[in-house]
Amino acid sequence: MAKKAKKQSGGTPATVALTEAGVPFTVHAYEHDPSHPSYGEEAAEAMGVSPERVFKTLVADVDGALVVAVVPVAGSLDLKALATAVGGKRAAMADPAAAERTTGYVRGGISPLGQRKKLRTVLDSSASGHATICVSAGRRGLEVELSPTDLSKLTEAVSAPVGRT
Questions:
Q1: Which residues fall within 8 angstroms of residue 142, CB to CB, at 6 or more apart?
Q2: Tens of pLDDT along 37-72?
Q3: What is the rounded distance in angstroms from the CA atom of residue 135 to the CA atom of residue 81?
């Protein structure tokens, strides 16, 4: 019988999901500054990691369905490309309250992993150019570093060029 990972003190649904899946990952914690204008750029600076390797998790509404896009913090989300990647016609950023309610995470700490409701996920194709990338671990000031291949498998993500610089 498989042993369930226990939620450790400071653990999040994302880190629990990674532990249960047996995927290698590294947790990076840093002091979050609420006055910083960009959660993702703050994470890259605090960890000393290139912004091209730090990815933000955005929730969009594509033809009435919520979809997760994981794109580099150094750029933005191409909504038209996201809609195309999931076979939709029109995409817009999701209502923040709906994104928080559906994922179980707060804005600025939404992780593509361990979400309350599993959403279709699109990982920007630039991720494949890195051995590891960093994504939110489920709260502000906490990131996980893992291979983009493992992230894709765990989230059942499709890869598409949805980020723009």
A1: 12, 27, 28, 29, 30, 109, 136
A2: 887 888 888 899 999 999 999 999 999 999 999 999
A3: 21
* pTM of the complete model: 0.90
Count CB neighbours of 66 within 10 A. Answer: 19
CA distance 31 to 118: 29
Q: How many helices (H) and strands (E) does the chain have?
A: 5, 10
SS3 42: helix
pLDDT per position as a tens digit, 24-34: 999 999 888 88
Residue 118 to residue 67: CA distance in whole angstroms: 9
Q: How many CB atoms lie within 10 A of CB 90?
A: 11
Among 10-14, 27-31, 153-157, top mean pLDDT goes to 153-157
